[in-house]
Every structure is written in structure tokens, then in C-alpha cells.
């Protein structure tokens, strides 16, 4: 599955819905042995959630958006397929979350790229299931530091903390993803055993999580922080 939503593969409601439909189709396809997620765009795996979906939108729309974010995570984290993230560019926040849903992460060894949960930099808090996914990937202490600082990691740092499993030359990300994928032939039952408690936690709190998101994101102070962050993104470009 090659992500293609220019300019930066931000995860809008529409794009999330497309991703969920694609994953669902693959999940039902008995001939499909697994999934490699990568990006068709240069330099960016995914810029994370589409910030415009969280800025100036109605509570109803925000709720619909958040349900789609949850759905993407539930589908990928709970997938019966062997999944590999072939991270061929930067992968902040929701992009990092998407990578962490996979069984294995291969990243392009380009020091210009970065990956991490940087929500704190936007003045927002990573939801509990983002935090749980990271804890399951890199451990409690690293997650605590990482979330408090909104830390982004270059590939070497990401490898060191275990946020990615392997670094490869930029032009060989696809080759290594396919080679590694071929070595894993059957989705292991231990995957669901390890992930079930984390998945059950969100499933049982799904509606409350949507309500929390909507009331948090529509607050004036949070909207102001997001507006300032968007301005900063645009200025940085000039
Ligand atoms: C009580 C507790 C309750 C808890 C409730 C929950 C709280 C809310 C939780 C929300 C969790 C949020 C998760 C997220 O994923 S938020 C998104 C975070 N993403 C980022 O910060 C990434 C920002 N982007 C970048 O760093 C760079 O764009 C990137 C490195 C990805 C690429 O750099 P590049 O130089 O190639 O591209 P540009 O920066 O020039 O960007 C091109 C245009 O794209 C726009 N852009 C970038 N990122 C986003 C995005 N995520 N959403 C929307 N738009 C984005 C950027 O502004 C440029 O636009 P213009 O061309 O119009 O200027």
C-alpha cells in the first residue's frame, strides 16, 4: 500500500477512509500474505493527521474525523496480516503512529528524516492509545521522555531507542521490505496475544475517547495553539 495524498500524505478524513477500505479488502483476500506500507511521495512517509481537520471545524465533523483515526489504528494494529512499514521519509505524530502499528519498521538512513510523536509541539496531548502503542514499541521510560518533549528522532536515534528496527540505504527501502516480508510467512498468534489488551482498551472507551477529543480540540485555547502551529509551518517554508 503506497500512500499518495500530496503534498505530505496528511491523514484527512477522506484519506483515512480510503486506507481503511484498502486494508479491509486486503484482509479479506485469502491470497494476500501481508502488507507493506510505504509512501509514493518524496521525503515524506506521512505528515500525520491533517491539521486542517482539527482547525475551525464543527464538533460533528471533528467527531467523524476522530472515529476514522481510531478505525485506521484498530484495523492496522489488529491486522491478521504480517505488516511492515517501509519508512521512506519523515513520519511525525500520526505518521509515526501508523508506522508503530506495523510488525516491523524499516527506515531510510537519511539524517534529514525524522520520526516521533511530536504532539506536545502543537500544544496538544497524545491520546492514551498513541501513548500505549509507543510504550509497547519502545518501553515506558523512553515513551515518557519522548511524549513530554514532543521529541522527533533522526533515523540513527530512532534505531537506538527501538522505534525502528532496521536502517537501510534510501534507494533500498523497498527491496529490504520485500526481502524481510518474504521471510515471515505466517502471521503469528503471539501478535494478537500481545496487542489484544491495548486494542480492547480503546474499543471499550471508544465513544468517550471521541467525546474527549471533540471537547479538547474545539477549546478556544487549543484552536489558538493549532493556528499558531499552522502559521509556523507556513513561515518555516519561506
Ligand atoms: C484531555 C486529553 C484529551 C486528548 C484528546 C486528543 C488530543 C488531540 C490529539 C491529536 C493527535 C495529533 C496527531 C497528529 O498527527 S497532528 C499532525 C502533526 N504533524 C506535524 O506536526 C507535521 C508537520 N509537518 C512537517 O513537519 C513537514 O510538513 C514535513 C516534515 C512532514 C514535510 O516537510 P516539507 O518541507 O516536505 O513540506 P512543508 O512543510 O513545506 O509542507 C507542505 C504543505 O503541507 C502542509 N502540511 C504539512 N504537514 C501537515 C499536516 N500534518 N496537516 C496539514 N497540512 C500539513 C504545510 O503547511 C504546507 O502547506 P502550504 O503548502 O499550504 O504552505
UniProtKB/TrEMBL annotation:
Gene Ontology terms for molecular function: delta(3)-delta(2)-enoyl-CoA isomerase activity
Pfam families given in the database record: ECH_1
Gene (UniProt): eci1
Subunit structure: Homotrimer.
Enzyme Commission designation: 5.3.3.8
Region (Disordered): 176-195
PANTHER family: ENOYL-COA DELTA ISOMERASE 1, MITOCHONDRIAL, ENOYL-COA HYDRATASE-RELATED
Pathway note: Lipid metabolism; fatty acid beta-oxidation
GO biological process terms held by the UniProt record: fatty acid beta-oxidation
InterPro entries membership: ClpP/crotonase-like_dom_sf (IPR029045), Enoyl-CoA_hyd/isom_CS (IPR018376), Enoyl-CoA_hydra/iso (IPR001753)
Catalytic activity, reaction form: (3Z)-hexenoyl-CoA = (2E)-hexenoyl-CoA; (3Z)-decenoyl-CoA = (2E)-decenoyl-CoA; a (3E)-enoyl-CoA = a 4-saturated (2E)-enoyl-CoA; (3Z)-octenoyl-CoA = (2E)-octenoyl-CoA
Domain of life from the UniProt record: Eukaryota
Organismal lineage: Eukaryota, Metazoa, Chordata, Craniata, Vertebrata
Bias (Polar residues): 176-187
Protein name (record): Enoyl-CoA delta isomerase 1, mitochondrial
Amino acid at each position: 500500500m503506497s500512500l499518495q495524498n500530496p503534498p505530505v500524505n496528511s491523514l484527512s478524513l477522506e484519506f483515512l477512509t480510503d486506507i481503511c477500505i484498502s486494508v479491509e479488502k486486503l484482509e479479506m483476500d485469502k491470497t494476500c500474505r501481508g502488507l507493506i506500507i510505504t509512501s509514493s511521495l518524496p521525503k515524506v512517509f506521512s505528515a500525520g493527521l491533517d491539521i486542517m481537520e482539527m482547525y475551525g471545524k464543527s464538533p460533528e465533523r471533528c467527531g467523524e474525523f476522530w472515529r476514522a483515526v481510531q478505525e485506521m489504528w484498530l484495523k492496522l494494529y489488529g491486522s491478521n496480516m504480517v505488516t511492515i512499514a517501509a519508512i521512506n521519509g519523515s513520519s511525525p505524530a500520526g505518521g509515526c503512529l501508523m508506522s508503530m502499528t506495523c510488525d516491523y519498521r524499516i527506515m531510510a538512513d537519511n539524517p534529514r528524516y525524522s520520526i516521533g510523536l511530536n504532539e506536545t509541539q502543537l500544544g496538544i496531548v497524545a491520546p492514551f492509545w498513541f501513548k500505549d502503542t509507543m510504550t509497547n514499541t519502545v518501553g515506558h521510560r523512553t515513551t515518557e521522555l519522548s511524549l513530554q518533549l514532543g521529541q522527533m528522532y533522526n533515523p540513527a536515534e530512532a534505531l537506538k531507542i527501538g522505534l525502528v528496527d532496521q536502517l537501510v540505504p534510501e534507494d533500498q527501502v523497498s527491496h529490504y521490505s520485500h526481502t524481510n516480508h518474504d521471510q515471515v510467512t505466517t502471521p503469528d498468534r503471539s501478535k494478537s496475544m500481545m496487542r489484544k489488551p491495548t486494542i480492547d482498551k480503546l474499543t471499550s472507551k471508544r465513544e468517550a475517547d471521541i467525546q474527549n477529543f471533540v471537547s479538547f480540540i474545539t477549546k478556544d485555547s487549543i484552536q489558538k495553539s493549532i493556528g499558531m502551529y499552522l502559521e509556523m509551518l507556513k513561515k518555516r517554508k519561506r
